[in-house]
Amino acid sequence: MKGTPSFGKMNKNKTHIRCRRCGRHSFNVSKGYCVACGYGRSKRMRRYSWQNKKSWTRQRLR
Length: 62
Fold this sequence. Notes:
little secondary structure; three-stranded antiparallel sheet; Ribosomal_eL37_CS
């Protein structure tokens, strides 16, 4: 069987479980690391500058 009926079988098993470091439901079981905090892949917390809005963009134009 292929096509549309096959897509119904895609939600049977869990891809992500709760992460033991950040607590979010984003630990990939098959890959073995958390996509939110990077647990299982690195010792440091996963964070980037583009996650937060820059402070100069919040200032009012004059």
